[in-house]
Amino acid sequence: MRLEDEIKQKNFRSDYQKGVVNIIFTFNWLDQKQRDLLKPFDITSQQYNILRILRGQFPNPATINLLKERMLDKMCDASRLVDRLLKKKLVERKTCENDRRAVDIIITQEGLDLLQNLEGVIKEHEKFMHRLSEIEIKTLNELLDKLRG
Q1: Is the CB of residue 103 less than 8 Å from the CB of residue 63?
Q2: Report field, pTM of the whole predicted structure over 0.85
Q3: Could you tell me the mean pLDDT of each successive run of 10 residues in the chain, 149 residues long?
């Protein structure tokens, strides 16, 4: 699927402009695919990201600041996302033992179970990436890393 066909634009000012537009278009395409995938599980991409971070920390808790540092979407309000996950009983919030002003967040067994249930769905979802060879995906990752400097 060529970018020109998708957005009905034949010419770009430069290949650099096309590259920027292509990355933005592809991000939105990937984001929509992930939203559609997560919708039946009643979580958003950002909530999924927080759960994955917490699973990586488990059994240790995380602070809101740690979640903010590691989140893919830096514009999200981690505190509100945690509040929504609390209502779903996917995380717990506790006062930090070392600093009474700080709050520790830890994933619950329900949160771990949800991530476990999602594993197969996510693997199936990622199969479209196999349109690229192993060399191509490594090159793509290297180029994206290089682009971010």
Answers
A1: yes
A2: yes
A3: 83 92 93 93 94 95 91 87 96 81 90 95 89 95 94
Tally of domains in the chain: 2
Give yes or no: residues 6 and 50 share one domain: no
Tokens of 74: 């830096």
| Number of H-type helices and E-type strands within the chain | 7, 2
Q: Are residues 26 and 67 in the same domain?
A: no
- Cα angle 31, 35, 39 (rounded to 5 degrees) comes to 175
Query: Is 54:91 a contact under the CB 8 Å cutoff?
Result: yes
Specify the CATH number for the domain of residue 67: 1.10.10.10
Helical residues (DSSP H) of 88-132, grouped into ranges: 109-125
Question: HSE-up of 81 (CA within 13 Å, CB side)?
Answer: 24
Identity (one letter) of the amino acid at 123? K
Per the structure, the complete domain to which residue 27 belongs is given by: 1-41
State the amino acid at position 40 in one-letter form: P
Question: Letter for the amino acid at 29?
Answer: W
